[in-house]
Structure formats: structure tokens, C-alpha cells
Design a protein that fits this description.
Order of helices and strands: HHH
Strand content: under 5%
Radius of gyration: 14 Å
Shape: globular
Structural class: mainly alpha
Largest sheet: none
Number of helices: 3
Number of strands: 0
Length: 69
Amino acid sequence: MRSIAAPATAAALGVASPCVDVCRMDAASGLCEGCLRTIEEIAEWSSAGEARRRAILEAVAMRRAARAA
């Protein structure tokens, strides 16, 4: 019997999506109002590897910190 590999998922990659189901793009900043990702980051998330996902999360964390300051 042949084994079929499951598609990569956030759980399989160990990096959960920062999506909080508030999906509105802010025209001024170009960021999602919920997760603070760019549209490009959102679009690439599902195919991004673990390292890229972690880089996106780091960028999101920096954006959150800048907003809080």
C-alpha cells in the first residue's frame, strides 16, 4: 500500500497563523487591521515554510510594538 503525504498545515509546520478573523485591510498602512500582516504576507502564508512564517510573525510583533509605543 502506498503512503500519501498530507499537505503541509500550520500545525504540521509548528507555526500557527496570526489571523484573528478580523480581515480588513487598512488603506493607509497597507496592513490587515486584525493580524497586522501585509496582503503579500497573507497571500504567501499557506505556502510559506517554517522559517518564512517565523519571519512574518517577527515582523508582526515589531508592528504591534510600534503601535503600542
